[in-house]
């Protein structure tokens, strides 16, 4: 008879399963933020290098030599902001839903997100310190008349 008293009711089981489904959906949403943010970060890093090379080779005229770097940093910062926003929303939601469910706030998804934030900040610092504007090489430029 004591076993029957300790058994959860059907409604309690349904409630716990609903919470678990919600937590798994929150994990999926966080990983979608990671995917989107990584795309922005990678695109920013690549775009900065690509535009800098186009300016250096004379294919693109750049009035501001810092433009490629600033463009890349802006895209990367947007990606990092998305990661941080997604992580904070995840933590807040898990704490709100997690009452009664044996699940830690520190999921593997959150740990991966924080590592990606760290790596992204290091990449932005690298971009700031190493991606300097190059002087045009003169190659692939059209010279009209005279020597050249």
Folded structure, characterized:
The protein has 148 residues and is an all-alpha fold. The chain has one domain. Helices cover 72% and strands 0% of the residues. It has four helices and no strands. It has helices at 2-6, 10-56, 67-97, 108-130. Helix 2 (10-56) packs parallel to helix 4. The longest helix has 47 residues, at 10-56. It is rod-shaped and about 80 Å long. The model is unreliable at 138-146 (pLDDT under 50).
Instruction: Work out the helix count.
Output: 4
Q: What integer is the average pLDDT?
A: 80
* Distance, first to last CA: 100 Å
Biggest β-sheet strands, sense, barrel? none
* Contiguous uncertain segments of 5+ residues: 138-146
Question: What would you say about this model in short?
Answer:
This protein has helices at 2-6, 10-56, 67-97, 108-130. With 148 residues, it is mainly α. The protein has one domain (14-130).
How do the helices and strands line up, and which of them pair or pack?
Elements: H1 2-6, H2 10-56, H3 67-97, H4 108-130
Helix pairs in contact: 2-3, 2-4, 3-4
Which descriptors apply to this entry?
about 150 residues, rod-shaped, single chain, about 0% strand, disordered C terminus, mainly alpha
């Amino acid at each position: 008879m004591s076993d029957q008293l300790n058994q959860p009711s059907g409604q309690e089981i349904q409630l716990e399963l609903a919470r678990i489904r919600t937590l798994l959906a929150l994990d999926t949403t966080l990983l979608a933020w990671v995917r989107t943010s990584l795309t922005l970060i990678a695109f920013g890093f690549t775009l900065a290098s690509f535009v800098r090379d186009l300016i250096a080779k004379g294919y693109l005229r750049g009035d501001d030599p810092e433009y490629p770097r600033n463009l890349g940093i802006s895209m990367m910062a947007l990606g990092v902001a998305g990661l941080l926003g997604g992580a904070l929303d995840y933590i807040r939601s898990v704490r709100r839903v997690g009452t009664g469910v044996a699940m830690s706030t520190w999921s593997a998804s959150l740990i991966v997100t924080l590592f990606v934030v760290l790596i992204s900040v290091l990449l932005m610092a690298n971009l700031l310190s190493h991606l300097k504007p190059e002087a045009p090489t003169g190659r692939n430029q059209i010279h009209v008349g005279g020597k050249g």
